[in-house]
Amino acid sequence: MRKISIFGATGSIGQNTIDLIRRQPDAYDVVALTGGHNIAQLAQDAIELRAEIAVTAHDARLPELRAALAGSAVEAAAGPEALLEAASRPADWIMSAIVGAAGLAPGLKALEQGTTLALANKESLVCAGALLMQTAERHGARILPVDSEHSAVFQALVGERLDEVERIIITASGGAFRDWPLEALRTATLAQASSHPNWDMGQRITIDSASMFNKALEVIETREFFGVDPSQIEVLVHPQSLVHALVGFRDGALMSHLGAPDMRHAIGYALHWPERKTLPVPRLDLAAAGQLEFRAPDPNRYPALRLAQEVMARGGLSGAAFNGAKEQALDHFIAGRIGFLDMATITEQVLASLEAHPGLIDAAMTLENVTRVDDLARQATDQVVTQRTG
Ligand code: NDP
Fold this sequence. Notes:
It is globular, with a radius of gyration of 20 Å. It is about 45% helix and about 15% strand. The strands form 2 sheets. The chain has a 7-stranded parallel sheet with strand order 4-3-2-1-5-6-7, sandwiched between helices. Strands 9-8-10-11 form a 4-stranded mixed sheet, with helices on one face. It folds into 3 domains: about 1-145, NAD(P)-binding Rossmann-like Domain (Rossmann fold, 3-Layer(aba) Sandwich), CATH 3.40.50.720; about 150-290, no CATH class; about 315-390, Rna Polymerase Sigma Factor, Chain: A. α1 links the parallel β1 (about 1-5) and β2 (about 30-35). By secondary structure, it is α/β, with parallel strands linked by helices. It has helices at about 10-20, 40-50, 60-70, 80-85, 105-110, 120-140, 150-155, 190-195, 205-210, 215-225, 265-270, 285-290, 305-315, 320-335, 340-355, 360, 365-390, and strands at about 1-5, 30-35, 55, 75-80, 95, 115-120, 140-145, 165-170, 235, 245-250, 255-260. It binds NADPH dihydro-nicotinamide-adenine-dinucleotide phosphate. NADPH dihydro-nicotinamide-adenine-dinucleotide phosphate (NDP) binds near residues 8, 37, 102, 202 and 204. NADPH dihydro-nicotinamide-adenine-dinucleotide phosphate binds near residues 121 and 122.
């Protein structure tokens, strides 16, 4: 039996992972499931899958988790240290699906035990890609992509040589507002930004899709995963979300990966890699789909894509500053303090202010320094929001 753990088990990726595990209960020995506020879901899944331990990220929720697990053999734990302890428990395969920079420390801890880390948590690669890669190498661990675009690139590269790759094209649906007049974005509401035309995902990534911050993170993720130059990465708006990525080789050939917009595809590929197993995902009917459209993203509509290029050009810890500011600006948008377009303006302002401190951005990429930059970016974002809102 394969020992597996799922970090962020109560979220959209976590639940899709559990859906696959549940179909083959005898194949997996579940070590740890972790969640945040959704204690009922965490306890229910931990009991059903006979997990060794269930961990909530929030200390204050421990009594509730204990009560929900009462009578079962599942251990209960809470807080950041408990997450790290769970990540250090031996497992053959660990899903990293916590949302945000909070996924970095458990991901690093998991890699230190030499496991295979299925990485959905793109923020950790954006904040500390080199640190994750070096940690994996040092401990003989492997990182497999779970983001659909990066899984698609990974699959298109099977049997290929990276030095023959000319470009990598990742697609973007364009999010909730792709056809809205630019001016209307100013007054876009939380409910409007939280509905995705094609994918069913967590709220934060759905809003990030509407602003293309998600694609900006994915561009940086592409660089970190595949080690290509930023100039080799392109984004194409593809409203149908059926072609997830294309890899262009130096002979002009383009290899693409197509599939229904269902995350169990990429999760299942990472779960069974290097084999392919039957997956419960809809099969594509291209005749029914009819048309596949592609267009270049409008830079005025999606400033986040320009910021990603600037972050990659700057290097160092600017990815952590970018992500921290973006996450905090998103919190303020969700809380109704700032408008939809303000997220990009504020992130750019905070990024510029932190990049003005070379000692900060060029510090060694350690977990401590990444966390410091992340904290400062969040504080600076709060200050800008306070100045704006009075
Ligand atoms: P969700 O918001 O649906 O789930 C996030 C998970 O993380 C939940 O289990 C949540 O717990 C937990 N969590 C939230 N905050 C913390 C914290 N501070 N510490 C520890 N755990 C926490 O997110 P998604 O599943 O949509 O996304 C997860 C990751 O996967 C993100 O990095 C996202 O970018 C990436 N991803 C998602 C895709 C998707 O289709 N959803 C596609 C590709 C990548 P709780 O809910 O119990 O509070």
